[in-house]
């Protein structure tokens, strides 16, 4: 669950022409268990706060001033919030709790004023020795959810629920033969029609390369029984991969980095398109890194066979024509030991220090047939220590005409926030957004949300104090 919070406002109208930055007053989050920014509804920004024994919604006006707050009444016996799904003028809170009959997962629907409008049970787990660690995913249109948990590493229990009709679409137990859920599952997705997709990867090892493959398990109300489709990947090993479902074109899509034989580095990109109605007619394309691409990323002249180390796919942006935009990033962390006189840190008087490096963003636009349209590099250099990299990386603001990548130039208290604005053919501009000097701001762009085509809200966390920053372009 994302950690986010807000209150009163300060405005910096002179930072850039055509841009407004509104900063809320600080709130202590020392005793909060969790919080989550829900979004904008009927002119108010809604925030959920879990205060351990109470659950509260707070609403803020367009100047980020507190308008009202309201406690939510959940079932009393150990409620655990699984997730929140926002809608246009309402939101759904999904949670589980213990009853006399057993463990129940339930949904509450609230309007924009946090009034309870509807409530129903999603799944009754009955009495279990172990409490299911239920997790949730939701569809692109935010109208369908799937709640799932794994037992014995090979039993996957799934309930798929229609939030519009407030009814269960289907529920099923999947037996994962010859698999380990934690090791083999790469991704779970639910589409807008309630179809559930589980992607497994098997034999992604040098000695088992001939058998390397993805397996896609699909089930929904449009089939009589679960379907399992294999996508052979014996040409290469997978270095990193990300899957999405394209509801417009009804394709399961993947983008990733591949290795020829050494999984310690990546040697190129790959694109995978699996049509929902005919999975056997999949498209699979591999494209090696060019020497120019490696030189642009690594900053000095490189050979084509050098490869790229410490990179990952952060996001896939869907194109209307069925193609994709790969959004990747160089990132790594290293752990080292430092001696300390304070022996209470560890028995040996040594504490671990973790260094985080988040550097260049690389973009690759790919046509529906797998041919590369264009690629480009957005340079940045971020370093932090012992902070789980919560202030690093970037936020992607999507608009019909361009993409905005917002990020901290440096991870420190006095910092400049910048953006790259990228158009449809890969051309870009870099701009400065604001300075945090003397503002006590540390922005967590990885936890920001987009609330309009030209607006985002990003949390700032500093010494257990949280502010919410609204940026309007």
List the main descriptive attributes of the protein structure presented here.
five-stranded antiparallel sheet, 35 strands, 473 residues, mainly beta
Written overview of the protein:
This protein is mainly beta. The chain has a domain at 89-234: YVTN repeat-like/Quinoprotein amine dehydrogenase (Methylamine Dehydrogenase, Chain H, 7 Propeller). Helix content is 3%, strand content 56%. The chain has helices spanning 181-184, 291-298, and strands spanning 9-16, 19-24, 27-28, 34-41, 44-50, 55-60, 66-71, 80-86, 90-98, 103-111, 116-126, 135-138, 144-151, 155-162, 167-175, 185-190, 196-202, 213-219, 227-232, 237-246, 251-259, 268-275, 283-288, 311-318, 324-339, 350-366, 372-378, 382-385, 395-398, 403-408, 416-422, 428-435, 449-452, 455-462, 465-472. Strands 1, 2, 3, 33, 34 and 35 form a six-stranded antiparallel sheet that branches.
Short account of what is shown:
This protein has 473 residues and is mainly beta. Helix content is 3%, strand content 56%. It has a domain at 89-234: YVTN repeat-like/Quinoprotein amine dehydrogenase (Methylamine Dehydrogenase, Chain H), CATH 2.130.10.
